[in-house]
Amino acid sequence: ENNIMIVSVRKRFVFVHIPKTAGSSIYQALRPFNDAPDTDENRHLELTAICGRYGYLADQGVTAVRFDYSGTGESTGDFATMDFEKWLGDVERMCDHVSAEAGGRPVILHGLGMGALLAQKAFAGGRGDGVLMWSPPSSALDILKQGLMIRLSMDMLLYRAAQRKSANDYIQDLKAGRRVQIDGYSWSGELWATGERLALDK
User: Fold this and answer.
1) Contacts for 1-5 with beta carbons within 8 Å, 24 or more apart?
2) 21 alpha-carbon distance from chain centroid
3) In this predicted structure, what is the pLDDT of residue 193?
């Protein structure tokens, strides 16, 4: 069986899937932060899928590395104080760490959704030797708008029409620095502001 090493790098929770033989490359995977509510059951399902996916890469001689962004999953930090620039910093620091440990082997960034956007920005900034993007949004704001739709859907179930806020109401709350609860996460105004600034390079 392949080895899975669980480590903490600068307070980021990291999984390293190690091949039986020396890996030919390092494959770093970046995931979305809000693909599913962060419950014990969802974490178990996610980790099961990850072990299968990256176990396959390990079988092909590729060392696979993934980590939880600050304030999410098992990493330290408060989600309510996080934003996209901080998460991009997480990606860049992890890339630097992985590249330093890679022993000259190529480092490939792979991201899903928001992770794809962050991987592309890190690669454009000189990190890694290649990038593979899976369903990247055109901007981080697209990801936030999807989350906002979840809040509006819940409001329709819980409140009468006269009591509901519109999408613009919530956006104005965020721009005014008020926190908004979205699918179990506390969003800050800075999260929205950095989402407006972060876009996929053409």
Assistant:
1) 2/55, 2/58, 2/59, 4/51, 4/55
2) 29
3) 97
**pTM to 2 decimal places:** 0.83
Instruction: Specify the residue for token string 């990801």.
Output: 143
Dihedral of alpha carbons 28, 33, 34, 37, sign: positive
Pairing outcome for strands 12-18 and 62-67: antiparallel
How do residues 95-111 score in pLDDT, each as one tens digit?
A: 998 898 888 889 999 98
148: nearest Cα among 134, 165, 124, 135: 165
| pLDDT attached to residue 118 | 95
What are residue 17's DSSP bridge partners?
4, 64
Contact yes or no for 119/30 (Cβ under 8 A): yes
Q: Pairing mode, if any, of strands 107-112 and 180-182?
A: unpaired
Sequence-ordered list of residues with C-beta below 8 angstroms from that of 115, at least 6 positions apart, any chain: 29, 30, 31, 32
DSSP conformation letters of the chain = --EEEEEEETTEEEEEEE-SS--SEEEEEE--SSSS---HHHHHHHHHHHHHHHHHHHHTTEEEEEEPPTTSTTSSS-GGG--HHHHHHHHHHHHHHHHHHSTT--EEEEEETHHHHHHHHHHHTT-SSEEEEES--SBHHHHHHHHHHHHHHHHHHHS-GGGPPPHHHHHHHHHTT--EEETTEEE-HHHHHHHHH-B---
- Give the C-alpha separation, 91 to 69, whole Å: 8
